[in-house]
Amino acid sequence: MALDFLKLIDVKESYQAPIKIGKIMRDSEQRTKLFDSFLAEQSDLSFDLFTEFFQAEQADRKDKKQDYTPDGLVTVASELLGSTTSNADICAGTGGLTIKRWRDNPDARYYCEEFSDRAIPFLLFNLAIRNIDGIVWHGDSLTREEFATYKLSKGSQYSSIEKVNEKGLLDNNIKTDTVIMNPPYSMPWNPKPEYLQQPRFSEYEVLAPKSKSDYAFLLEGLYHLADNGTMSIILPHGILFRGQAEAKIRKQLIENNYIDAVIGLPDKLFLSTNIPTVVLVLKKNRTNHDVLFIDASKEFNKLNNKNELTRDNIDKIISTYKQRKSIDKYASVVSYEDFVENDFNLNIHRYVDTFEPEPVIPIGQTVKELFELDQEEQRLFSELSLSVNALVATQSLQDAHDLDKLKAYLNAKAKRKQVQAQQELL
Question: Which of 261, 244, 260 shows the shortest CA–CA distance to 205?
């Protein structure tokens, strides 16, 4: 894919690709020509064809914590949301999550936020070639610093792309029916006191800690969620139990009745990190006050050095979420009172007991094995005693004295065994 695509856009090195694609996306004639050529070689647009290429060649994991969502996890996060007329993808990357939402909801409108200069050209390519209607906001979702805004409009075959000057777009109350997110995990940020005046943060009275922006991203996504909408966000497990500011935000989310489900996933799903992740499902206008916990961490297909979610694994998660019933060692419906009792800690293992007791060995088998070991021990002692008796007659006085001491020890041990056996019989 990588080499063919580089040839298609007429560049020799992968680092040149984002700049070249960006130029082509700004020219409607060149854009149409590229899309036609691309589709002549690859007509299947059901998934993000750039994921493997971009994460291997372009992703900035060190500074921006970029890692692209594996297919199984994309499917889980999307199918939890169901149908939609509008969808927001915060930290959209090259558009993998949005493409999955588009497959299931081709007529919806899409809103994407992305920070990376290198990802934006691929994101625009992915949306326009699929004739998607929507907005791409290029900027910092945490600080609200804007770099550019692009408006995509449906055409006869491909979307048109228009760079627009809409400063303050994020403050224009953009709301969508569904929100899907896989933000950078535990990325440092620079929280400023004035951010607490913004609607997305104000009711929580604290900001996510400087060392971990996970809850800042979550609240950014929640801000864009319509009152009757549903949001799914993929995050590290630490957000379930870390303390201080994060504990206060977590408590407020629970008291607001926003958290609908907590789904634990296997480790080793991602290319660059082995940590297990969790999917949170959030809703604003819930009528029930419990939370569904699912522990799917042990259900996966093992590859060489990675794990993957199979279709069966995914179906079990989705059906359990829809049925909203407790399943032994897999799922539990937890009340608000339980959260109060646990100091609003959402650690999955507090609510889903997956403990498997050690199998009990039959007592008859145990007695038989002990008896056989005892008989073997007595046989070895007898052989050793005979060997000692034979050696005593041939050794020097000092050696004979030492062997006599060994012989006395063995005889005493044999007598103790006999007494012990008699006591057990009594």
Answer: 244
146 DSSP β-pair partners: 139
Dihedral in degrees, nearest 10, Cα atoms 139, 142, 144, 147: -10
Angle at 130 between CA 98 and CA 184, to 5 degrees: 25
| d(C-alpha 37, C-alpha 125), whole Å | 13
CB distance 208 to 245 below 8 Å: yes
Instruction: Return the pLDDT at 421.
Output: 57
Q: Give the pLDDT confidence of 50-79 residue by residue, as tens digits.
A: 876 666 554 444 554 445 788 899 999 999
Asked whether the beta carbons of 127 and 116 are under 8 A apart, the reply is: no
Quick check: 1 and 53 in contact, CB under 8 A?
A: yes
Separation of alpha carbons 214 and 209, rounded Å: 9
The answer for 418, left when phi > 0, alpha when psi is -120 to 50, beta otherwise, is alpha
pLDDT in tens, 229-286: 999 999 999 999 999 999 999 999 999 999 999 999 999 988 777 888 999 999 999 9
Name the DSSP letter for residue 280: E
E strands, 192-274, where? 225-236, 259-264
What kind of fold does domain 40-350 have according to CATH? Answer: Rossmann fold (3.40.50)
Using DSSP's 3-state secondary structure scheme, residue 332 falls into strand
Residue among 248, 236, 220, 231 at smallest CA distance from 187: 236
Q: Where are the chain's structural domains? A: 40-350, 363-425
Given CA atoms 72, 73, 76, 81 in this order, what sign does their dihedral have? negative
Residue 426 pLDDT > 60, yes or no? no
The predicted-structure confidence for 330-387, as pLDDT tens digits, reads as follows 999 999 999 999 999 999 999 998 766 666 667 777 777 777 777 777 777 677 666 6
Cα–Cα distances (Å) from 83 to 105, 111, 178, 179, 410, in that order, read: 6, 16, 8, 12, 81
Across the chain, mean pLDDT equals 87
**What's the start-to-end Cα distance of the chain, in Å?**
81
142-166 pLDDT, tens digit per residue, is 999 999 999 999 999 999 999 987 6
Give Cα separations from 253 to 68, 201, 219, 249, 421 (angstroms). 27, 12, 10, 6, 66
**Could you tell me which residues come within 8 angstroms of residue 217 by beta carbon, excluding any fewer than 6 positions away?**
90, 91, 141, 142, 181, 183, 184, 233
